[in-house]
């Protein structure tokens, strides 16, 4: 079993109304079944709700009020919005003020403070791959804005014939180039996992001037990870070893 993670820097993100709206997706590479939720409020772990959408409905994506209604039906834990708002999110909101500024501060080539998204990819011993991506989006986004994370082929993709991908970064850029699926396409064309993530992110940068980060595990257990921001928190478990890092070129290793 091989798995890789990108980790969030903060717990939540505030939109321009000062509210938390979260997006998440999960995808099963064996069946290509996916479950996605967007703009959900008061949900502690939107990825759990996405899993219910995948397992218990005939749909792929539920949004807003309907998604919250479904959460109630399946007994997903809800909580007051105040409990989802961290001090860091408030500080970020007060300092960034506007969406464009937040994008620049979080994903700018030189500043790149971090990615408020959690992503995971995994390969099990039966050769099944899966991905999951969960986010609060980007500070000061317009209410109702949905980013790449809950959109199949953008914030993530999983296919046993190729591998599983999870993305972070400027959602509008990622959606313009279908970043997760372009990594899959490059691998189908014969690139290694690492070549594919580097090519896809460089292409996104050239075409739409966007920055981000990607993790991928191939069907053979090869890992690719790359980011065009100055830093991205990541971790990888393979062959009883834990690798992790934040800065460019950093790769720490511990036995587990
Ligand atoms: N931090 C992120 O990765 C944000 C996410 N991609 C979005 O645009 O919603």
TrEMBL record:
Keywords: Autocatalytic cleavage, Hydrolase, Protease. The record marks 116-117 as: Cleavage. This is Uncharacterized protein. Belongs to the Ntn-hydrolase family. InterPro entries: ASRGL1_meta, Ntn_hydrolases_N, Peptidase_T2. The keyword Hydrolase applies. Substrate binds at residues 145-148, 168-171. One of its GO terms (molecular function) is beta-aspartyl-peptidase activity. The active site is at 117 (nucleophile). The keyword DNA-binding does not apply. GO terms for biological process: proteolysis. It catalyses: L-asparagine + H2O = L-aspartate + NH4(+); Cleavage of a beta-linked Asp residue from the N-terminus of a polypeptide. The lineage of its organism: Eukaryota, Metazoa, Spiralia, Lophotrochozoa, Mollusca.
């Amino acid at each position: 079993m091989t798995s890789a993670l990108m980790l969030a820097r903060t717990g939540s993100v505030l939109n321009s109304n000062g509210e938390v709206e979260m997006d998440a997706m999960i995808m099963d590479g064996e069946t290509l079944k996916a479950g996605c939720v967007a703009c959900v409020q008061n949900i502690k772990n939107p990825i759990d709700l996405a899993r219910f959408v995948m397992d218990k409905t005939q749909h792929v994506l539920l949004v807003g009020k309907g998604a919250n209604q479904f959460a109630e039906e399946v007994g997903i834990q809800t909580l007051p919005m105040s409990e989802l708002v961290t001090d860091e999110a408030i500080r970020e909101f007060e300092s960034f003020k506007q969406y464009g500024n937040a994008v620049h501060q979080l994903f700018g080539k030189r500043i790149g403070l971090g990615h408020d998204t959690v992503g995971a990819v995994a390969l099990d011993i039966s050769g099944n791959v899966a991905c999951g991506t969960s986010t609060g989006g980007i500070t000061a986004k317009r209410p109702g804005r949905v980013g790449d994370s809950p959109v199949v082929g953008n914030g993530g993709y999983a296919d046993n014939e190729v591998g599983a991908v999870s993305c972070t970064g400027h959602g509008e850029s990622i959606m313009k180039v279908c970043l997760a699926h372009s990594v899959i396409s490059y691998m189908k064309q014969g690139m290694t996992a690492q070549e594919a993530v580097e090519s896809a992110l460089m292409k996104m940068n050239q075409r739409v001037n966007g920055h981000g980060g990607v993790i991928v595990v191939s069907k053979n257990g090869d890992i690719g990870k790359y980011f065009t921001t100055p830093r991205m928190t990541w971790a990888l478990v393979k062959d009883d070893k834990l690798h992790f890092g934040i800065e460019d070129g950093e790769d720490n290793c511990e036995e587990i």
